[in-house]
Automatic annotation (TrEMBL):
Residues 188-240 form the HAMP domain. This is histidine kinase. Residues 248-464 form the Histidine kinase domain. It comes from Lentzea aerocolonigenes. The keyword Chaperone does not apply.
Length: 464
């Protein structure tokens, strides 16, 4: 039960929290200001009352000469009543107080008798029983044993202070009410972008609609909306890439699957009774075609899996020796290609990254160079520093090179130039190279080598 208000506040809407916060802040400020104003006015009122009483008492003590107590008894009480004042004369030797017959005696306490005896020069106090403020001033010579006591009602001052407290309370309540109204208006206006974000999030969750939200202003909420729109754009781009990947993969898979199905149906049909038989040479050729198509499908599916893995966001913090990565890729490329040689020049370089992904990217570049290199030619492979905090891996072949029309598209998924359509491959190898480079903060570019063939450059950050 102790934590119920806090839990209730946490369950409240953000708009209600802002409203309550504004109301509480204004209430606290109004309470502090009102309390301070009340205390200052209260002190000023009572200080003025005390000062007036002292002046009256000093005036009486210096200007009113009493020869006998009878003169006090016969003092006109109307004068005192006009000023709402009570007056009396204390005599310590008789222990009596003398005051006008038609008035009431002022209150007395022990300290007032000490003033009469000369132990104090004056003393001021409040008599709560009669609601009066009282002052006692020594009267006469030092050893006269007398004191003038004057009391004045505090009812007017307290009435004034009570009215002031009511006024401050009303003003404070009005301020709190206005603050709550203003807080509600500010919350409704200020949180409108948040409401639009909420509605957009619900729309995306329910319908998958990635339409950006209109942005107005340049405050924090506007920047939040810009960030949300950027996120929607990234999601839309990712979905579009996935759709293109699925469509392109389906297109690429359709050809080998159709060819494989035709060959298999032909083999099965030749085994049926009363069907034309195939020669052993034809069967061998069809079986070779099926194995080649299976290899092509295996390569294509492996590239698709690798491409999908590269699309997934990954945080890489593994120290990588790029020379070792390049050497492992080179060993695998040499085992696959026995008809070409490799001219290798490597300089030390390290970076933080994924060694397997980097090895796959370099191997793809080498396989691509081997595929287009004539038999007996050399593939140039170099790893060198470029002096701007990065190193480049260059792979150049002695093939026909890349046409100018194909250069902007060589790193696109499933893109294959007219010269490469008759060669084995999935059209995904260079796309994987580009994604690996981007994931490591680098770039992949294509151009013409001095030898006349293609030149692929993989630029990666790191240190020697």
């Amino acid at each position: 039960m102790i934590f119920e208000p806090q839990g209730r506040l946490q369950r409240a809407s953000l708009r209600a929290r802002v409203t309550w916060l504004a109301a509480f802040c204004v209430a606290g400020a109004v309470a502090l200001v009102s309390f301070g104003a009340y205390m200052i006015v209260r002190k000023s009122v009572y200080d003025a009352l005390d000062e007036g009483l002292r002046q009256r008492a000093n005036t009486v003590a210096t200007g009113f000469k009493v020869t006998t107590p009878d003169e006090v008894l016969n003092y006109p009480a109307a004068f005192l009543a006009a000023g709402d004042v009570k007056m009396g004369l204390l005599q310590s030797n008789t222990g009596k107080i003398f005051y006008p017959r038609t008035s009431e005696p002022p209150p007395t306490i022990d300290e007032a008798w000490e003033v009469a005896e000369g132990d104090r020069t004056d003393y001021t106090w409040t008599d709560h029983k009669s609601e009066t403020r009282v002052v006692a001033v020594h009267y006469g010579p030092e050893n006269s044993g007398q004191a003038i006591v004057i009391a004045q009602s505090m009812v007017p001052q307290r009435t004034t202070l009570a009215k002031l407290s009511v006024v401050l309370l009303l003003i404070g309540g009005a301020g709190v009410l206005l603050a709550a109204i203003a807080g509600t208006a500010v919350a409704r206006t200020g949180l409108r972008p948040v409401q639009r974000l909420t509605e957009a999030t619900e729309r995306v969750a329910n319908t998958g609609d990635l339409t950006p939200i209109p942005v107005s202003g340049d405050d924090e909420l506007a920047r939040l909306t810009h960030s949300f729109n950027a996120m929607l754009g990234a999601v839309a781009e990712s979905q579009e890439r996935q759709r293109r990947l699925v469509a392109d993969a389906g297109h690429e898979l359709r050809t080998p699957l159709t060819s494989m199905r035709t060959n298999l149906e032909l083999l099965l049909a030749s085994e049926r009774p009363n069907s034309p038989t195939l020669s052993q040479e034809d069967k061998t050729e069809i079986q070779s075609d099926v194995r080649a198509q299976i290899d092509e499908l295996t390569t294509l599916i492996g590239d698709l899996v690798e491409l999908a893995r590269e699309d997934a966001p990954q945080v890489v913090h593994e120290p990588v020796d790029l020379v070792e990565v390049v050497e492992r890729s080179l060993d695998r490329a040499r085992r696959r290609a026995s008809n070409v040689t490799f001219d290798v020049q490597l300089q030390p370089w390290t970076l933080l990254g994924d060694s397997s992904a980097l090895e796959r990217a370099v191997l793809n570049l080498l396989d691509n160079a081997v595929k287009f290199s004539p038999s007996g030619s050399a593939v140039r492979l170099s790893l060198r520093q470029v002096g701007d905090g990065s190193a480049v891996v260059e792979v150049a072949d002695a093939g026909p090179g890349i046409a100018d029309a194909d250069l902007p598209h060589v790193f696109e998924r499933f893109y294959r130039s007219s010269e490469a359509r008759t060669l084995p491959g999935s059209g995904l190898g260079l796309a994987i190279v580009k994604q690996v480079a981007q994931r490591h903060g680098g770039t992949a570019t294509a151009g013409r080598a001095p030898e006349g063939g293609a030149l692929f450059t993989l630029r990666l950050p790191g240190r020697p």
